[in-house]
Design brief:
The chain is mainly α and about 180 residues long. It has a domain of about 100 residues. The protein is built from five helices and two strands. A two-stranded antiparallel sheet has the order 1-2. α2 packs antiparallel against α3.
């Protein structure tokens, strides 16, 4: 069975590969399978985080559009009311009242948009943090409670000495500071 390749200006392009079939054919040992499965889960978490970020941006855009439409409608209504005022003093009071109201609404709208952005960021980071915790657990760097097992790692790690002590230990004298 031969697979067809297509020509490209820089050479031949191999046919599309199904990575899952290729990995199954490799007959990886259990450790290799776990590594590949972990990478797949990492990619799935990134895809989910990107999907959620896209949906959040879409919702934020829709909300901005709604706010812009409401502001435009309020501006039109306010303009009509100012024009309909009987004298110049009434027009000035009406205009000042509308300006203050528009400013207050704009601040509330900005707060609303900021809260939406923060909530979506928390959701996306939650997906990534969850996967990071799972990954640490998979490689044995966390305890059952999800805390990083730094004590166990620190006990096994060789103790590093500052450069001046290493030189002194090797029979060299340390340079005086400049």
């Amino acid at each position: 069975m031969s697979q067809k390749t297509t020509a490209a200006p820089w050479g031949r392009i191999p046919p599309a590969l199904d990575l899952r079939k290729l990995i199954d054919k490799l007959e990886l040992p259990e450790v290799g399978r776990r590594l590949v499965a972990g990478q797949r889960k990492d990619i799935e978490a990134l895809v989910e985080a990107n999907r959620q970020a896209y949906l959040a941006l879409e919702a934020l855009g829709k909300r901005q559009q709604e706010l812009l439409r409401a502001a435009y409608d309020a501006w039109q209504t306010g303009t009509r009311e100012v024009i309909a005022a009987p004298d110049l003093a009434s027009k000035a009071r009406q205009s000042a009242k509308r300006s203050q109201q528009a400013f207050s609404e704009a601040l509330a709208d900005l707060r609303d948009l900021a809260e939406m952005a923060v909530a979506s960021n928390r959701q996306v980071l939650g997906v990534l943090n969850e996967r990071a915790g799972q990954r640490l657990q998979e490689i044995g760097l966390t305890t059952g409670a999800g805390k990083v097992a730094t004590e166990a790692v620190a006990d096994d790690a060789p103790q590093a000495q500052p450069p001046s002590r290493r030189r002194a230990a090797a029979g060299r004298t340390a340079r005086p500071p400049r």
